[in-house]
Specification:
With 256 residues, this protein is of the alpha/beta class. It has one domain (6-248): Rossmann fold. The chain has helices at 21-32, 44-56, 71-85, 111-139, 151-154, 160-180, 206-214, 225-235; strands at 12-16, 36-41, 60-65, 90-93, 142-147, 185-192, 246-249. A 7-stranded parallel sheet has the order 3-2-1-4-5-6-7, sandwiched between helices. Helix 4 (111-139) links the parallel strand 4 (90-93) and strand 5. The protein is globular and about 45 Å long.
Length: 256
């Protein structure tokens, strides 16, 4: 199987949180198209498992256990990638505090949960982007993709820490795009809708999928593979004149 993105051949792309869920699908997608998928994942066992899956399928991957909330861990991951491959072409800021999140009114929310969402979903993306930019600037070419969420547009109740953190990525996308365009680096964001993965979630059940599907123009549940092609495009040569944009990918659940 290929997604037909020939320009990704030999590109080196870091995908954070690629040890499971949607991030795992992104890593496989890049590898299928000839890129090296760097799996920057806090769970070392999950990272190595995905690395092995990609190798078994004939692709190239490197698992690097990484805590994206820690600047030293991020810098070590980026330096190891650069040493191994001599370049960094793309970064997909996918890792997030989500699957284990608690839903409750913001006025009942634990401050620690708010802080964790901001540290992981916002600061993590900032630290990873900051670390890769010198390598991209040196080659005057690079792609950064932030993974936001359509909850920014729907304003889902009892999710304020998550909604706010994902909204911040939209602003980060626009600001970074203005600062990095002169160096040949594009920055864009993708907004997935409710996506069924292998991960159990405390905040999602079959009724959630049914209601979401009913509100979409395309009447089926979103899967990780529905997102892969869009992310690969944004990292490819074909998206070289696209920057500062935010694209919902949710089967027509929300229209801008």
């Amino acid at each position: 199987m290929t997604d037909s993105f020939a320009s990704l051949e030999d590109r080196v792309v870091i995908v954070t949180g690629a040890g499971r869920g949607i991030g795992r699908a992104y890593a496989h997608g890049f590898a299928r198209n000839g890129a090296v998928a760097v799996i920057a994942e806090v769970n070392a066992d999950n990272a190595r498992s995905v690395e092995a899956e990609i190798a078994a399928a004939g692709g190239r991957a490197l698992a690097i256990p990484t805590d994206i909330t820690d600047a030293q861990s991020v810098q070590a991951m980026v330096e190891r990638t650069a040493r191994a491959f001599g370049r960094i072409d793309g970064l997909v800021n996918n890792a997030a505090f989500f699957a284990d999140i608690d839903m409750k009114p913001f006025y009942e929310m634990a401050d620690a949960d708010w802080d964790k969402a901001m540290r992981t979903n916002v600061t993590g993306a900032y630290l990873c982007s900051k670390a890769v930019v010198p390598h991209m600037r040196a080659r005057q070419w690079g792609r950064i993709v932030h993974i936001s969420s359509t909850v920014v547009q729907t304003g889902r109740a009892n999710y304020l820490h998550y909604v706010t953190s994902k909204a911040a990525l939209v602003g980060m996308t626009r600001g970074m795009a203005r600062e990095l365009g002169e160096f040949g680096i594009t920055v864009n964001a993708v907004m997935p809708g409710l996506t069924r993965t292998e991960l159990p979630r405390k905040t999602t059940n079959e009724e959630s999928y049914r209601i979401t599907k009913a509100g979409q123009a395309i009447k089926r549940t979103e899967t990780p593979e529905d997102l892969v092609g869009v992310v690969l495009f944004l990292v490819s040569d074909g998206a070289g004149f696209v920057t500062g944009q935010t694209l919902p990918v949710d089967g027509g659940g929300v229209f801008r």
